[in-house]
Automatic annotation (TrEMBL):
This is Transcriptional regulator, LacI family. GO terms for molecular function: DNA-binding transcription factor activity; transcription cis-regulatory region binding. It comes from the Bacteria. It comes from Pseudarthrobacter chlorophenolicus (strain ATCC 700700 / DSM 12829 / CIP 107037 / JCM 12360 / KCTC 9906 / NCIMB 13794 / A6) (Arthrobacter chlorophenolicus). Keywords: DNA-binding, Transcription, Transcription regulation. Residues 16-71 form the HTH lacI-type domain. InterPro entries: HTH_LacI, LacI/GalR-like_sensor, Lambda_DNA-bd_dom_sf, Peripla_BP_I.
Length: 344
């Protein structure tokens, strides 16, 4: 980094300021502000180039704390998700970051690790850092309103299929999505379809299980075996082994997450079974991991981009301060080879 002294300009006593940049570029501090903030007034390209050159050569860094104090906003939002190593939550977090950046906001990401106490602690810590709001993908179907209200920061619930009175919430239609996947398996002639159901912190009834039941009942089929394990690769692997060891082996499995399905694939391959010839498989989420497994997974895709955009809009966009709404997005079935469909 160059100092002003080495560039022939008297060096400042402290950090480089906006005035230093303006003096070096030969413009007003207002013009520097327009360049740094991208407006509100347009700056001629040649003038902007001079300002950007001065910023680079002087090593100027805008004072975020001073800007936040002036605007009454940190222009930062927080995000709490269960686990960013899960491809779906990683996809969701990236979509939230993009939606926030489009509005000039930065994102602070935290993981709850599927722990209620840590989720609450993360919300409080983010609020203490004066973020403008927090988006929470809660581990609970019905998180306690008092916990969020005590943080004294706006909260929007994301990936939340149940209405939460007093809060904006955004989710996907779990029931319809799961029903579509199971009906597709039934369409391939399967009459014994197992459910690998992910476990959740609150032990609440998950809509994906309801969709599985509805599809079977609609086709006049009996309920297949159910195995409950975590929403992880390890959980799926355990589920696959247990289903294969059961007295009556199903001919198809619906897994409630792509990660579980990946674990199930390993269990099936280790047992010498071919997918989908010996065992068909469909899953839920629509992550990249589903597309690049072998065989590629037929999966119910959640519209992560649209969900993230809706959550950010409710928190800091046009929906901010309005009457809380519960938005549910439809999911769509991505048909690949694991169900028995031919390759395109």
């Amino acid at each position: 980094m160059y100092s002003m002294t080495t560039l022939g300009v008297p060096g400042p006593r402290g950090p480089v300021t906006r005035k230093d940049v303006a003096r070096f570029a030969g413009v007003s501090t207002a013009v520097v502000s327009y360049v740094v903030n991208g407006g509100p007034k347009r700056v001629a390209p040649a003038t902007e180039a001079k300002v950007q050159d001065a910023i680079r050569r002087l090593g100027y860094r805008p004072n975020a704390a001073a800007r936040a104090l002036k605007l009454g906003s940190s222009e930062t939002i927080g995000l709490v998700i269960p686990d960013n190593s899960n491809p779906f939550f990683s996809l969701l977090a990236h979509a939230v970051e993009e939606a926030a950046a489009e509005r000039g906001y930065a994102l602070v990401l935290t993981n709850s690790d599927g722990n209620v106490a840590k989720e609450r602690r993360n919300v409080r810590n983010l609020a203490a850092r004066q973020v403008d709001g927090v988006i929470v993908s809660s581990v609970l179907m019905e998180p306690g309103a008092a916990d969020f209200e005590s943080a004294e920061v706006p909260v929007v619930l994301l990936n939340h299929s149940a209405e939460a009175p007093g809060f904006n919430s955004v989710g996907v239609d779990l029931v319809a999505g799961a029903r579509a996947a199971v009906e597709h398996l039934i369409g391939h002639g399967h009459t014994s379809i197992a459910l690998a159901m992910g476990t959740n912190t609150g032990n609440y009834y998950d809509g994906r299980e309801e969709g599985w039941l509805q599809a079977l009942a609609g086709a006049g089929l009996p309920e297949g075996p159910i195995v409950r394990t975590p929403f992880t690769r390890e959980g799926g692997y355990a589920a696959g082994r247990r289903l294969l060891a059961g007295a009556e082996r199903p001919t198809a499995i619906f897994a409630t997450s792509d990660l579980q399905a990946v674990g199930i694939l390993r269990a099936l391959h280790e047992a010498g079974l071919s997918v989908p010839e010996d065992m068909a498989l469909a899953s839920f989420d629509g992550s990249a991991e589903a597309e690049y497994s072998w065989p590629p997974l037929t999966t119910v895709r959640q519209p992560a981009q649209a969900m993230a955009e809706a959550a950010v809009n409710a928190l800091i966009g046009t929906g901010r301060g309005n009457t809380p709404e519960h938005l549910i997005f439809p999911a769509d079935l991505q048909v690949r080879q694991s169900c028995g469909c031919r390759r395109d």
